[in-house]
């Protein structure tokens, strides 16, 4: 499936979670067997092309894609969790959202020194969450030079922010605006 065919499977919900936002809902893509398979295949191909040793996914929709990509590539999956979800000592990073702050946590024992980790999430918008995840993975000793996303909300600057942090973003689809 090409980008246009994948975009046709993404539901757009106007004014969610706030007025003026066009929410790109990937659950409709995930529910379509051919769409999900094509998305995972294309992102897994990217993971193989960069020689990823493991895949790290951001909770929650990054878990769906990241775990599937890891399985397709025969690699391990590293979860980047929301605060308070891991039962072991963690490292953490706080980041800003348009409506407040949040925190990601990582079990650093899951990261082998200098492992080439591909950072995965469903969507990149402002880049706040991805940059927090990138920082955590690097603090744990990973080499993270690439991120992979199903969707890039290009006008919001997240891809640019990742490039400025020496992490090349890759996405299957791009949407303008919010």
Automatic annotation (TrEMBL):
Enzyme class: transferase
Reactions this protein catalyses: AMP + diphosphate = 5-phospho-alpha-D-ribose 1-diphosphate + adenine
Protein name: Adenine phosphoribosyltransferase
Quaternary structure annotation from Swiss-Prot or TrEMBL: Homodimer.
Pathway entry: Purine metabolism; AMP biosynthesis via salvage pathway; AMP from adenine: step 1/1
Keywords: Cytoplasm, Glycosyltransferase, Purine salvage, Transferase
Signal peptide: none
One GO MF term attached to the UniProt entry: AMP binding
Cellular localization per UniProt: Cytoplasm
GO cellular component: cytoplasm
Organism: Alteripontixanthobacter maritimus
Annotated EC: 2.4.2.7
Source domain of life: Bacteria
NCBIfam families: PRK02304.1-3 (NF002634), PRK02304.1-5 (NF002636)
Biological process (GO), any one: adenine salvage
Task of the protein: Catalyzes a salvage reaction resulting in the formation of AMP, that is energically less costly than de novo synthesis.
Principal location class: cytoplasm
Entry keyword annotation includes Cell division: no
Family: Belongs to the purine/pyrimidine phosphoribosyltransferase family.
Domain Phosphoribosyltransferase as annotated: residue spans: 49-146
């Amino acid at each position: 499936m090409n980008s246009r065919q994948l975009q046709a499977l993404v539901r757009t919900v106007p004014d969610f979670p706030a007025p003026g936002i066009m929410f790109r809902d990937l659950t409709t893509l995930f529910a379509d067997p051919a769409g999900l398979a094509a998305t995972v295949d294309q992102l897994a191909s990217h993971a193989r092309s960069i020689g990823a040793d493991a895949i790290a996914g951001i909770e929650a929709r990054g878990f769906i894609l990241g775990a599937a990509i890891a399985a397709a590539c025969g690699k391990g999956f590293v979860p980047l969790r929301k605060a308070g979800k891991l039962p072991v000592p963690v490292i953490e990073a706080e980041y800003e959202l348009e409506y407040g702050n949040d925190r990601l946590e990582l079990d650093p024992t899951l990261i082998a020194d200098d492992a080439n980790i591909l950072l995965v999430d469903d969507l990149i918008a402002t880049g706040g969450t991805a940059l927090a995840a990138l920082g955590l993975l690097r603090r744990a000793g990973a080499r993270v030079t690439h991120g992979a996303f199903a969707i890039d909300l290009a006008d919001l600057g997240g891809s640019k922010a990742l490039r400025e942090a020496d992490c090349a973003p890759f996405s299957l689809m791009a949407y303008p605006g919010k």
